[in-house]
Design a protein that fits this description.
This protein is α/β, with parallel strands linked by helices. Helix content is about 40%, strand content about 35%. It has one domain (about 1-105): STAS domain (Transcription Regulator spoIIAA), CATH 3.30.750. Strands 1-2-3-4-5 form a five-stranded mixed sheet. Strand 2, helix 1 and strand 3 form a beta-alpha-beta unit.
Length: about 100
């Protein structure tokens, strides 16, 4: 598991790797707060994620809500099929507009 964040051209890219579960929730939350604080559009990449648990999903939803409140956008890209199914089962697919491996809020 890991996170990588970088900024370029008014966008903050946050890439997640491996299994992201409750044991990494605190670090993910800190990264999400840092991304929120940049003032940039935020892009979260999930193409190297093996699994997300509900704690990670909750943090992504909170990030989307925080960005929306500031008139900014969250894009979630590279969503693996199993993770897309987790969004569907939790009902977050409607909230986050899950498409073919990409979300834009």
């Amino acid at each position: 598991m890991g996170f990588r964040m970088d900024r370029q051209s008014g966008r903050c890219h946050l890439a997640l790797h491996g299994v992201v579960d409750v044991s990494e929730a605190r670090e993910l939350h800190e990264q999400a707060l840092a991304a929120l604080g940049t003032g940039d559009e935020v892009i979260v990449r999930l193409d190297e994620v093996e699994r997300l648990d509900t704690s990670a999903l909750q943090i992504l939803v909170a990030l989307a809500q925080g960005l929306k409140a500031e008139g900014r956008r969250l894009a979630i890209t590279g969503i693996p099929p199993g993770t897309r199914e987790a969004f569907r089962l939790s009902g977050l697919d409607a909230f986050l507009d899950v498409g073919q491996g990409e979300i834009r809020t």
